[in-house]
Write a structure and sequence with these properties.
This protein is α/β, with parallel strands linked by helices and 327 residues long. The chain is 26% helix and 26% strand. The structure holds NADPH dihydro-nicotinamide-adenine-dinucleotide phosphate (NDP).
């Protein structure tokens, strides 16, 4: 809920009629662990940050269930509840949190200008980008319906819930191999569904997979459908052999996707330096981007770790770098 006597409340009321132009020292884009941690640190440094929640408020953790690997929660915590706590903590120290999404940026000079889908315009001295990344999915209808009920794009987050179960993982890259190996610590059997007749993964990862008796690689195999939503959890997959075209059912308890992530950097293409996969480039061991005063933290600049705790860590770094920059 917007807080009365704050510019947030004022802005929301005005946004219905007249878009607002607002100035801030620090604008944060995105509301995952990186964005909120940056907000907590920036607010405690008296920078009065303003945070736009973006398209997926709370980020990727809101689509997971139990989070058991974030230190400080020995009993685990539900992803959405955890993000609510992050938000409350950021608000407690005075972060203005707006349900708005950046749609246009002008980073050619300071103050930077960010326009939003509510028609608002923010002028900021510094910008922290924490727009995250989105796991790629196959695009099947039931796959979305069964997210968190057998379908997952994060084996490290959800593998534990498949103790002694049969699971399938789609993908043939290093992530798929790594996650398949991780899943063998819990599941009784792991089927790797690879769409071609070879892996994309490095040889060393391939070897580890081939050497693991719990993993069975099914080449030339694509997922056509996920069954059975009526039961409210995954019970089987409809698969296709890409060589013969034959379709068949395969019983399983879980479907993991490891077919890559896409960083949410559309807005910054051609503006900030990105790597060949679209991740924002930052200075070594820093969150500073190719434009002075613009910082990036969390998954939007991290193709490797992609954990809540590492995102939070880089969020902290970004806020500290902003503070130093403004000094
Ligand atoms: P990659 O892009 O390397 O691999 C994606 C895999 O998913 C490929 O096998 C691809 O198949 C498959 N795929 C993509 N789309 C579909 C689809 N629609 N249906 C079925 N399969 C699909 O992504 P990763 O996340 O694995 O790795 C990203 C980067 O991170 C890489 O550079 C990797 O080396 C690195 N990494 C390194 C690790 C390590 O060193 N331990 C661990 C994890 C990642 P196809 O090959 O046919 O295109």
């Amino acid at each position: 809920m917007p807080r009365e006597n704050s510019s947030l409340w004022f802005l929301e009321k005005r946004a219905e009629d007249t878009p607002m132009v607002m100035k801030t020292k620090t604008l944060i884009l995105g509301s995952g662990p990186a964005g909120y941690t940056a907000a907590i640190y920036a607010a405690r440094a008296n920078l009065s940050p303003l945070l736009l929640k973006g398209l997926q408020p709370g980020g990727q953790l809101t689509i997971t269930t139990d989070v058991e690997n974030y230190p400080g929660f020995p009993e685990g915590i539900q992803g959405p509840e955890m993000m609510e706590r992050f938000e409350n903590q950021a608000a407690r120290f005075g972060t203005e949190i707006l349900p708005d999404t950046a749609t246009e940026v002008d980073l050619s000079k300071r103050p930077f200008v960010v326009k939003t889908n509510l028609g608002n315009e923010f002028h900021c001295e510094t910008l922290i980008i924490s727009t995250g990344a989105s796991a790629n999915y196959l695009g099947l209808e039931n796959e979305q319906k069964l997210q968190g009920r057998g379908v997952s794009a994060c084996a490290t987050c959800d593998g534990f819930f498949f103790k002694d179960k049969d699971v399938c993982i789609v993908g043939g890259g290093d992530s798929a191999c790594e996650e398949a190996l991780y899943l063998t610590h819990h599941a009784s059997k792991v089927h790797m569904l690879v769409r071609r007749d070879q892996f994309r993964a490095s040889k060393i990862m391939q070897k580890r997979v081939f050497d693991n008796p719990k993993i069975e690689v099914q080449w030339n195999t694509s997922v056509v459908d996920v069954l059975d939503p009526a039961e409210g959890k995954v019970t089987a997959l409809k698969l296709r052999n890409n060589k013969t075209g034959e379709e068949f059912l395969q019983k399983t308890d879980g479907l993991f996707l490891a077919i890559g992530h896409t960083p949410n950097t559309e807005l910054f293409k051609g503006v900030l330096e990105c790597d060949d996969k679209g991740y924002l480039k930052t200075k070594p061991n820093r969150t500073a981007t190719s434009i002075e005063g613009v910082f990036a933290c969390g998954d939007v600049q991290d193709p490797f770790y992609r954990q809540a705790i590492t995102a939070a860590g880089t969020g902290c770094m970004a806020a500290i770098e902003v503070e130093k920059f403004l000094e």
